[in-house]
Amino acid sequence: MCPTARPSTGAGSVSEPETETETYDWLRESIHGGSLRRVDLHTGSNGWASPPGELFSLRGEDYLSGRRSKSPAGPYLLRPAGVDWLRSSGRLDDVLSRPDNRVSSSLRRSRSLGLSLKSFLFAVNLQIPGRDACHSAVFYFAAEEPISPGSLLHRFVNGDDAFRNSRFKIVNRIVKGPWIVKAAVGNYAACLLGKALTCRYHRGENYLEIDVDIGSSAIANAVLHLALGYVTAVTIDMGFVVEGQTEEELPERLIGAVRIAQMEMGSATYVEHPLQMAAAAAAAGNNARVNHHHNSQQQEEE
């Protein structure tokens, strides 16, 4: 028998073009597609980056033994998947369920190609109220494989809101900024967000989104708006953690972290509030009915 001939790879040969299934990378599209661009960790501004986990100190293995020791966090549990800086006429809830959300749309497209069928999204949506507009800073993270069953993160994703509120923690680290911001926000400050603020949890088929309502606390709202007054001079690291409260749950691990570098308020992308979208759809429906009635009358007169 003759061996099967293989396509020539020599000069002059024509290779077959890659298909969309072979080339589409939803995670890369998600990371680089937001209004807040990814920038260099050390020199970037008006953007986001991924700070090393070692910069965060979390509860160590013997934290509960009385020593209260902390240790560098190490690698994230989930991969960074982008940041959105959004503006709207009202508070934006459950942004991952929106048909125009670019991150969930990228994942849906990938799944339609038979890819990323096990991928899972985790999003933290910091909701910032305002007089003229509401803003949302949305941080996305992704798992390409199923989250390990029985792990603390798995229990958090699939638990009830009471459990989530008792465990969801943010760790802040001011990298650069005026002293007044450092004094107000606190450096290396940790806070159980579910205890201090109203958190709403949205569990979809392949995602968990946590909406953190900054306006639910007068103190937090005041501190944040003070910081926003200096936002173009502030660089801050934020890490998200499921708090370990038993020895078996230690050491703590970062779900993920993000560095926001000297952001500009005006860089936010405007998105329609659901109430606006509903009103526009109703108006379109009314216009269609009016036009249909008008056309019917014309046909009868003819």
From TrEMBL:
Give residue ranges for domain Protein ENHANCED DISEASE RESISTANCE 2 C-terminal: 48-264
Note down the stretches annotated as region Disordered: 1-22
Q: Where are the transmembrane segments?
A: none
Q: Which regions form coiled coils?
A: none
Which InterPro entries did the record assign? EDR2-like, EDR2_C
* One family name in Pfam for this protein: EDR2_C
Concerning PANTHER family, the annotation shows: ENHANCED DISEASE RESISTANCE-RELATED, PROTEIN ENHANCED DISEASE RESISTANCE 2-LIKE
Specify the domain of life of the species encoding this protein.
Eukaryota
User: Where along the chain is composition biased (Polar residues)?
Assistant: 1-12
Q: Which organism is it from?
A: Iris pallida
Official protein name in the record = Protein ENHANCED DISEASE RESISTANCE 2-like
